[in-house]
Model the fold of this input.
Amino acid sequence: FQYSDDIFGADVASNMCHYAPYNQDFPAHQAALLSFWDELGIPHEKEKQLFGSSLTIIGFIVDMERMSFSMAPNKKLICQISDFINSHYLRHPLRDFQCLAGWINWALNVFPLLKPGLCSLYLKMAGKSHA
Done:
């Protein structure tokens, strides 16, 4: 699985290989990919080479043991919603609605069945162009 410049995959926990440049054992597929990147001269950082049964990926916790996705605590999302609700504006600019819709749409990647709840927000923005 690849998302932007992040690559994710699965491997058997016992299938580990030593990757000499980092002096650390990695899942075999990950070690092979790092070696391939070395051959091509593609830079990478040790701190970004994560593996395990539970990882945070683009702000979502992916737990392979529980076979679940959940949202990591996200103070910025809560602040965006709170700021929108508690704003001094009687009428919010279109840009505020668009920003809020983007944040909520991202959050609902974990809860796709709730996405229809965004319809009223998108309806509110429909046909408007002044941000």
Helices lie at 28-40, 75-85, 94-107, 119-125. The mean pLDDT is 85. Strands lie at 2-3, 6-7, 16-19, 24-27, 54-57, 60-63, 68-71.
